[in-house]
Amino acid sequence: MNGQGDDLPIIAIKGVSKRYPNDVVALENISFSLEKGEFCFLTGPSGSGKSTLLRLLYCAERPTSGDIFIDGVNVKTIKQTYIPILRRRIGVVFQDFKLLQDRTVFENVALALEVIGFNRDQIALRVNKVLENLGLGGKGKRYPQELSGGEQQRVAIARAIVNRPPIILADEPTGNLDPQRTMEVLDIMDELNARGTTILFATHDERLFEGTMRRVVRLQDGRLEVEYS
Ligand SMILES: Nc1ncnc2c1ncn2[C@@H]1O[C@H](COP(=O)(O)OP(=O)(O)OP(=O)(O)O)[C@@H](O)[C@H]1O
Ligand SMILES: [Mg+2]
């Protein structure tokens, strides 16, 4: 996709600012990069700009100034029609799961493959495998409201990873989960990362990365405050 070699960072954020139409400056001159295969926590208090930064990365918002490169491609200059193709390279997981309530677990996960043209047999194979891997085998026919919060989040992760994107962006994915389910989600992310997926995990909960060797990027009032590994 990039044709520019493998040594480029998979995500590069350069001097990015975001001012919302109401004049709130959510991000101010942010710069950092993620190498392929990195697992990085994005932290900072409520309102510091974590969700905004992720929204810029999956092109739900555009930066007011600065540049964002995904796989060496500047998202500012790409055509609108290219955004869905870029988004296929990025799996997104949210705090509130965002599952379709009138679709089964299987259908929620399958949708991600239907839109990119997989046939029914391929879809069944892939979806059942990912559900199995995430401990959801046998739950395919259930509806989201028939599952626990932890199970719903695993369905949302299944949906995000079923097309095997090289990047996962997670926005407070454990915010609605108890400590046990939180650990399960962290373990899943660790495993995905061990298989080469680049992960940017936003959370205000310092306990999730205390004592780990993971890289941590911290925002404060829209500025990159400290960064440590
Ligand atoms: N759509 C929007 N329009 C206007 N202002 C917004 C919008 N979304 C967020 N903001 C503002 O931008 C700032 C950053 O918000 P953001 O949601 O990125 O923070 P956050 O770090 O994700 O917070 P939280 O931990 O509560 O999720 C806040 O001041 C917020 O009020
Ligand atoms: Mg947020």
Automatic annotation (TrEMBL):
SUPFAM superfamilies per record: P-loop containing nucleoside triphosphate hydrolases (SSF52540)
A GO molecular-function annotation: transmembrane transporter activity
CDD domains: ABC_MJ0796_LolCDE_FtsE
The keyword ATP-binding is assigned to this record: yes
Entry GO CC: plasma membrane
Assigned keywords, A-Z: ATP-binding, Cell cycle, Cell division, Cell membrane, Membrane, Nucleotide-binding, Transport
Top-level division of the source organism's lineage: Bacteria
Similarity comment: Belongs to the ABC transporter superfamily.
Self-association state and partner proteins as the record states: Homodimer. Forms a membrane-associated complex with FtsX.
Annotated function: Part of the ABC transporter FtsEX involved in cellular division. Important for assembly or stability of the septal ring.
NCBIfam families, per database record: FtsE
Protein name: Cell division ATP-binding protein FtsE
Organism: Dissulfuribacter thermophilus
Lineage of the organism: Bacteria, Pseudomonadati, Thermodesulfobacteriota, Dissulfuribacteria, Dissulfuribacterales
Gene name for this UniProt entry: ftsE
